[in-house]
Amino acid sequence: MNDSKFPKLLDYQALKQQFSDDGSQPAVSSAAENSAADHALSFEPKEAEKKPGLQGSRLRSYAFAVLTRKEYSKAELIDKLALYAESREEVTTLVDELSRENYQSDQRVAEIMLSSQKRKGKGPNQIKMKLKNKKIDTALIAEELKETDWVQQAYELKVRKYGTEVTKDPKIKAKQIRFLMYRGFEMDAIMKAISRKENDFQ
């Protein structure tokens, strides 16, 4: 190895002479080295962990910037802004104002989620659970949930996965039921979907 290309970072011989004329100074144990390293790390500056402390117009500007990128539920927006704000109370007041002015809307978030989850083949139970996770009242889209033909939704999903044949095999039927239940469909819609024949539409 070329020493000029890979220069030594430490001159060990010089270090030995510094601590002991004869170089016989006992080496520090690896455990002691690790302890010292951990001790040193514990005193590293933690500036990155400090909150920016946004407030007033700066907090409001940041809230608008966040909402232009994505729709947030009220609870989500409060939690997100609170990470960077000086005061959670100010955040709550601001988000209430943004909600009243319709810049933030749980209704819109719920409708977007309903449409998105239906496209993904998810049933009403899955959708309600996701809304609950975002702390959105399912009553906001109660009418849309009621008007959706969940039997048709479940049938289309079953056809994509298992085809149009109505099986009489109890094992296959149980598999189809589990699949649709996992997707969030209710049992009534599932049983109608897996029993529906292709000519039922004619």
TrEMBL record:
GO terms for cellular component: cytoplasm. The keyword Cytoplasm applies. Belongs to the RecX family. Residues 105-143 form the RecX second three-helical domain. One of its GO terms (biological process) is regulation of DNA repair. This is Regulatory protein RecX. Residues 20-33 have a biased composition (Polar residues). Signal peptide: none annotated. It is found in: Cytoplasm. The keyword Secreted does not apply. Residues 148-194 form the RecX third three-helical domain. Transmembrane segments: none annotated. Residues 20-56 are annotated as: Disordered. It comes from the Bacteria. It comes from Acinetobacter bouvetii. Its main location: cytoplasm. Modulates RecA activity. Keywords: Cytoplasm. It holds the Pfam family RecX_HTH3.
